[in-house]
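Instructor's aside before we start: the two examples that follow are unrelated to each other. I chose them only because their records fit on one page, so don't look for a connection. First example below.
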Amino acid sequence: MGLGDKFKHSAEKAAGKGKEAAGEATDNDRLKAEGKTDQVKAELKQAADKIKDTFKKH
């Protein structure tokens, strides 16, 4: 995967952390859950990128 995709996924994860923190600060359970979900999605995308990179190298 391209370097741009890796940055994009990292940014998505950071945004999820921000959402979670905002939910924590405002005691908004829905926002906290959305933030955690966004982080998991970004982590899955990062894992998929690593797998694709591994197969491209071999």
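Example two begins here.
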Amino acid sequence: MKMPNVVHCYLDSARRRLKTLGLAVDQIVNSTLGDNSVVIEESNWIVLTQSPLSGEALTSSSVVHLGVVKLNDPKASGITANNC
């Protein structure tokens, strides 16, 4: 199995897509505020980074990390979010 591309997906859509593959998201990091921020409404967030990268081989023990940004954050400017 290979890691799908979930960059520019809404966070809730990315989680659903990964869950259908049997993967769990271990860590979500707010790209603006760091680890100490809280994501409450996942549909208000966009994935900016992912690890493993798209196309990398996955195993059942693979751990997924996502870097996200809130829709109204300047870092999200110009990004068209997708329901993946």
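The chain has a mean pLDDT of 86.
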